[in-house]
Amino acid sequence: MLRWVVFYILLFCFLFIGNANAQQDGLKAKIDEIAKDAKGTVGVSVLNLETGDTLNYNGYLHQPMQSVMKFPIAITVLHEIDEGKFTLDQQLRLDKSDLFKTYSPLQDKYPAANVNVSIRELLSYMVSLSDNVACDKLLKILGGTDVVDTYIHHIGIKNFSIKASEYQMAQAWDVQFSDWVMASELTHLLNVAFKPNFLSTASHAYLWKIMQETSTGPNQIKGLLPVGTIVYHKTGRSGTNEKGISAATNDTGIITLPNGNHLAIAILVTNSPVDLKTRESVIARIAKAAYDEAAK
After folding, report:
1. What is the pLDDT of residues 50-100, one digit of tens each?
2. Residue 45 annotated as catalytic
3. Is there a catalytic annotation at residue 67?
4. Which one of the listed residues 67, 124, 238, 246 is annotated catalytic?
5. What is the pTM of this model?
6. Are strands 262-272 and 246-256 parallel, antiparallel or unpaired?
7. Comparing C-alpha atoms, which of 266, 251, 79, 292 is closest to residue 183?
């Protein structure tokens, strides 16, 4: 009798694992087919935060982050706030020297600078609007990119490098490649940062509030998901060089599934010669395929 019980348990485990592997292989095949449209390098990592189910497709490659780096910068700022070095409502002086030619709704709002702006507002501009001036202002008060690099490594994210500010990346094409990450490490970071005890209650709530309020890249991870799906995410996108190559079109974040579980996902499109609409479509279709598989 005991032998039969053991037999059926083993059979169940075998069938369950086989089915899980088949589902993962099916999703990888879909991702592989979609990724071909980018005509570049596509790195993908997917992690169900509740079940631990994981899938990586080129998830261990070094790929440029571009503005995805603003997510770990925000984490570092909030950690420093929790350590008592700053406060969310602390006012910082925005000077003319903080401004440069770049994408910045903050700079558009205060073209003459010489105003006080709270860290709360700077974080919101940096994450939700992907503001470059706000990003570099926060890097200045932290003490530079090395502070972020050191802290993110300290919390266990090893395959990550941030060496250049937004201003520095704007000076030469190749500089952006010094700010790199593996897709698999982004889902690891999302998993760490989403835990309620990672930051203080107030800092945790504010981080995920501004991640949910991200308005950039509406046609990327969120593009094909059901209307009303809660997504916390951060985009990143480079320019296009004279050869027609776009170094980075990225989106990473957490999708809330219909059953309440959370799907961490990172999709990084590197060195692609196709137009923005196609690159965004690749990200949207991969996100939808991962969502559909996880929602089964």
Report:
1. 999 999 999 999 999 999 999 999 999 999 999 999 999 999 999 999 999
2. no
3. yes
4. 67
5. 0.92
6. antiparallel
7. 266
